[in-house]
Amino acid sequence: MPSTDDAARDITEGVGATALGIAAARAAETVSDNPIIHDPFAQVFVDAAGMGMWTVTANPVLSAAFIAREPGLRAMVRALIDFTAVRTAFFDEFFSGAAQSGIRQIVILGAGLDARAWRLPWPDGTTVYELDQPTVLEFKSATLQQQGILPASHQVNVPTDLRADWPTALQEAGFDVSEPTAWSAEGLLHYLPAEAHDRLFQRVHALSSGNSWFAVNAPSKRRGTVAPGSPQTEPADLEHLWYAGDVTDWLHQNGWATSAVTLGDLLARYGRVIPDGDVMPTVFISARRLTAVDRSWVGQAQRPIR
Ligand SMILES: C[S@@+](CC[C@H](N)C(=O)[O-])C[C@H]1O[C@@H](n2cnc3c(N)ncnc32)[C@H](O)[C@@H]1O
Questions:
Q1: Closest C-alpha among 49, 57, 53, 63 to residue 26
Q2: pLDDT in tens, 31-50
Q3: Residue having the nearest C-alpha atom to atom 4 of ligand 1
Q4: Residue 10 C-alpha to ligand 1 middle, in angstroms?
């Protein structure tokens, strides 16, 4: 797992490069025969980053040539594209629902090369705050500006480290704690240490007025610890990471109503199949912070997903 790298000089280095891999998968899905998402800006990012594995993933011709030489990678490439496509669709639908409910303040945690502030049809008066490492946000803004691509919202970059005091940076950028907010943490938890998970949920909660929305994807299963000497593909403090059940439990205890869908169910919803669905075990959770009125009749009838 690439670690968050304070010294990364550009998007192709450190954990920022994971955003490029996801953009490449979105680009591939966008030009596929039966796309479930449309992200015309993903290819713009891939091109601007220069040659790399992302170039191959994004381009169906290069990808086919690569797979012809390495047939064992076919399933992996397909799984990455399908996973990214359904994940993107889930968060797109979440934001579209939040906007329809009247929310005009959006916060995207670990925004990476997600171009929602540019590509979704936001209602007038919507502000989208994007939090990520400075190198990632600088690359994204500069790339789109150079192409003359304008945001479809009032888009605000908040360059920050999500392990540090990001609420101050967010509020200094104009965030209004009294307004309902739609938050997302898409493809992010895996890259943060456990104590940053605790703080992330506590901070989202503290900054959310009633009727705020929150969507996050979280690992669905606890896995064994990494054997000594094996490649470090997982964070070291596995036991303390937040898994889907922890997230829904915590949200319920703190006055949020949740719904959750497994990756398998989400793939089925869009007619996609990842043969070994366990490759990327994850649950997609959406939540709404209840108001005092809601709490008086909803009670505690919700069941967390594990
Ligand atoms: C896998 S990418 C997902 C990006 C985006 N949410 C998407 O789905 O396209 C993970 C993102 O988290 C960001 N990230 C990871 N750790 C971070 C940290 N400590 N502070 C700020 N951003 C971080 C990375 O820079 C990267 O853009």
A1: 57
A2: 999 999 999 999 999 999 99
A3: 112
A4: 13
